[in-house]
Design a protein that fits this description.
With 255 residues, the chain is mainly alpha-helical. The chain has two domains: 95 residues, Winged helix-like DNA-binding domain superfamily/Winged helix DNA-binding domain (Arc Repressor Mutant, subunit A), CATH 1.10.10; 137 residues, Four Helix Bundle (Hemerythrin (Met), subunit A), CATH 1.20.120. The chain is built from twelve helices and three strands, in the order αβααββααααααααα. It is elongated.
Length: 255
């Protein structure tokens, strides 16, 4: 059943029907809603004060992205995490970002390198002094990676991958629970170290190690949260459904 306050974004004001899709999509990608949660058109309409047509349109778009599954005679289910699709999304990200960061290593200006270093420092500051949940760290992480694309004039590529990377996004957010955040920053530092020396091959190696570390974290996450993953028989109990699922299962705060 849909909780009365599905997302924090909708708490402050009544949303226009045209905003349903991005807000509901963010609720899914940022794990405000647990994978496997069952929703309904009726409850979505009541919550957003919207008619069935705009709500249904939003749901259809989310279905096309694989983020929700239509359950005949039952309603809608937030899609379980499919590790095969997640691996393909990550494969695409690695292939494109390797090309972009190799270009950055040999073409960057002094000002561009300084900006990349500033973005890394923001992550260091968050780890040392910042407050907030893992979503805020992931936003800083995205900003760091996105800058390479922007600097090389390839920001459309980044936006396209973000739009089609819903399973990878949810896995990255879950991985904040099991990974050492300092290791993440260390790997970002190795990427910039190779950039400083113009070592395109070194950048590619550092990026590959960084993105593929998730391979080692998937098993632990499956064992810890089996109800989130496609192919398992365990499903979330009522206590896992509702507002801000990420915070409910492990506090959502940095450790």
């Amino acid at each position: 059943m849909m909780e009365a306050n599905l997302t924090e974004q909708a708490k402050e004001r009544q949303l226009d029907s045209m905003e349903i899709y991005p807000v509901l999509r963010k609720a899914i990608l940022d794990l405000y809603v647990c994978p496997g949660t069952e929703l309904s058109i009726r409850n979505l309409c009541e919550y957003y004060h919207a008619g069935r047509s705009p709500v249904r349109d939003a749901v259809m778009r989310l279905q096309q992205e694989g983020l929700v599954t239509i359950l005949p005679q039952r309603g809608i289910m937030v899609s379980l995490i499919d590790l095969d699709i997640e691996a393909q999304e990550r494969y695409m990200r690695l292939a494109v970002e390797t090309a972009v960061t190799r270009d950055f290593a040999v073409r960057h200006t002094t000002d561009q390198l300084r900006e990349a270093e500033r973005l890394l420092q923001q992550q260091v500051d968050w780890l040392q002094h910042g407050e907030g949940d893992y979503r805020s760290f992931l936003d800083l992480d995205d900003a760091f990676h996105e800058y390479f694309y922007v600097a090389m004039g390839q920001d459309f590529c980044f936006r396209t991958m973000q739009q089609s990377g819903g399973f990878y996004r949810r896995m990255r957010l879950l991985c904040c629970q099991v990974q050492q955040m300092s290791l993440n920053l260390e790997q970002h530092g190795l990427i910039l170290q190779a950039v400083r020396t113009g070592d395109a091959d070194g950048v590619a190696r550092a990026l590959s190690n960084h993105l593929q570390k998730l391979d080692y974290e998937e098993k632990e996450l499956q064992e810890k949260y089996p109800y989130m993953f496609k192919g398992t028989q365990i499903r979330a109990s009522a206590q896992h459904l509702g507002v801000d699922f990420l915070r409910a299962v492990y506090g959502g705060q940095k450790g």
